[in-house]
Amino acid sequence: MYVGTPGVAYALYRAARSGLFPTSEATAFFERARILADVAVHWADSERDPKTRAGFLLGGAGAYLVSALLNNLCGKMDEVRKYVDRYASLSRVCEPMSFLSCGSDEFFVGRAGYLMGALILQRDTGIEVLPPNQAALLCRTMVESGRQYSARVQSLSPLMFSYYDVEYLGAAHGLAAILQVLLLHEKLLSEAECSLVWASVDFLLMLERDGNWPPVMCEQIGSDDDQLVHWCHGAPGVALLFVKAYQLSGRPQYLAACERAAQCVWNKGLLRKGPGTCHGVSGSGYLFLVLYRLTQDPKYFYRAYRFMEFMFTEEFCRGARTPDSPYSLFEGLAGTACFLLDLIKPDGAEFPLYATL
Ligand SMILES: [Zn+2]
């Protein structure tokens, strides 16, 4: 999903279902998406390591997700169920607490991503992907994994996680994404588990500096390295957690954090790394679109629109770097396409594969 064919198929799926194109064009998007998704499924099926297959953004699970969504779009429900079953069968792989030696809970390859995919798949097809007790088991394992790691390293956060021995804080591999997935599944957690999650949300809130967050934990105190304002590391990704926290709790401090983050992104979010969602201008713009959905404040729509306009200026076209994967969902034009589609219909705007509201 991150830089490969299923991510491009997913963007074409969003275009095909948007209702913004004549039938002939929507059909062309759909047909092309299906070709790409078939290639991706072939790869995922032939991947021998089930742990790699279970990865949402960097593994094979995304291929099953996008194939199920495409078949749902054309009403082939037997095929939808086939791919939903393949996605669901990977949940057993994610059950052992340390199923990945690099870190089992983050978003790209770990449980958080797998659970986010299951949630989106269930929401968008209306078919149960994981029985509630299975989803609850994976969520509880994440909480317990974070609690044990936190105790081991004497973290100040009740829940902490590491990925390749780094305590990331942002959406890509970090605490923000894991907490967001846990908040999305809040109803499946016990009261004690919920209070650990919310205390960790408040811990992350405390680390904010001028609307941004440091990328990793060890750089938090006394470091200047808080200049990354990316979805993957920094305000555009972390603030989505506080959007969710505000929606669930109504506590004004979460909305205030979102507002400060949006100001920081407005000041610093015109990135040189291309038009993508992960560390590009679209990823910055998505915070405004999600905040517009949350607040209906036209200021946020205006800011998203201006970020879109910037991507069409000569300054950007000449000055921005071409990403390694220029057509991909997270680095390239597929993600930009999602952003442009959501700009036309902002009421349902959602960062690709990262449910918030
Ligand atoms: Zn990135």
TrEMBL record:
Query: InterPro entries this protein is in?
Result: 6hp_glycosidase-like_sf (IPR012341), LANC-like (IPR007822), LanC-like_prot_euk (IPR020464)
Q: Which Gene3D superfamilies match?
A: 1.50.10.10
Any one GO BP annotation for this protein? carbohydrate metabolic process
Alphabetized GO MF terms: metal ion binding
Q: Which UniProt keywords apply?
A: Metal-binding, Zinc
GO CC list: plasma membrane
Pfam families membership:
LANC_like (PF05147)
Q: Which residues fall in a coiled-coil region?
A: none
So where does Zn(2+) get bound? 232, 278-279
Q: What PANTHER family does this protein map onto?
A: LANC-LIKE PROTEIN, LANC-LIKE PROTEIN 3
Annotated family: Belongs to the LanC-like protein family.
Name this polypeptide is given: LanC-like protein 3
Q: What is the species listed in this Swiss-Prot or TrEMBL entry?
A: Eptatretus burgeri
Q: Specify the taxonomic lineage.
A: Eukaryota, Metazoa, Chordata, Craniata, Vertebrata
